[in-house]
Predict the 3D structure of the following.
Amino acid sequence: MPVFGGWLRNVPDEGMEASWDYARDLAVCAEQIGYDLTLIAELNLNDIKGVTEPALDAWSTAAAVAAVTKTQELMVAVRPNFHQPALFAKAAANIDRISGGRLSLNVVSSWWADEARQYGLQFDQHDDRYARTSEWLEVVQGLWREERFSFEGRFYRTEDAICAPKPAHPPILYAGGESEAAKTMIAGQCDAYVMHGDPVEAIAPKIADMRARRAAAGGRPMTFGMAAYAIVRDSEAEAKRELARITEVKELPAGYANFDQWLSGTQLERELKIQEYSVSNRGLRPNLVGTPEQLKERIAEYEAAGLDLLLLQMSPQREEMERFAAQVIAA
């Protein structure tokens, strides 16, 4: 869901405003043409178009989308340091009921220090983020599971707390991260591992590693997802022309300082290149750029490597989403 008004940092106007009207129409359309899931990101500042530009709130948007859709899984991002867990458990359970049991969480351990400072919120150092997230998940899941839930931890405390009504179904917990602290937490407490975009040869060992960690933790098999930016055209030459258009950086856009802060605050396994700045989440690395036949072949390679879910960014989202559905999904 382009809650930031687009995905391209160096294209000012992508024709998809950050508004409820656009989000509603996009969600309804996606459901009708074959998309199974919508990810709604949570950032209070606009990471794509610059911090002064509009960005939709994730959770009020999710509640509204839940009411106007029928089948789509709603994966909504949540950052533990922005939500008191007991109150969050109550609100999220209600949204899950509104949706008929279609809510899932994308648990994100915050990276944006300046955003937390502006909103007067706690910002933890890297490994402490995952320690907080681990406790936060214990509280949320405890409230969803038990009639009364008490907890005493380093970050949170509850006393005989009640959450009713509970979710219709326990929401799936997605999470991503490439540090040791992140992988340990995810393998032990989450249901699915989501990754930034990468070639198949980089994704396959990550899946194998997390499967092994999950088995050692004694959990059920995990689901694996990956972010990707998709461009499908009738010819490879047309697709490459569109790729050239969206990656041309003539001058550093308004959001560059946020990208630079993120680079300095995360532990990535592979170096991010400044050329990739135009598209977030390393979305161009999977190379889903080409003809319908080329994209189908590449997607099949990811499926063979164990990938279950593609989280696709496109621009403009609705028009490109419809093209991809007709030429790739339907085929």
In short: DSSP finds eleven helices and ten strands in the chain. The longest helix spans residues 126-145. The two ends are 24 Å apart (CA to CA).
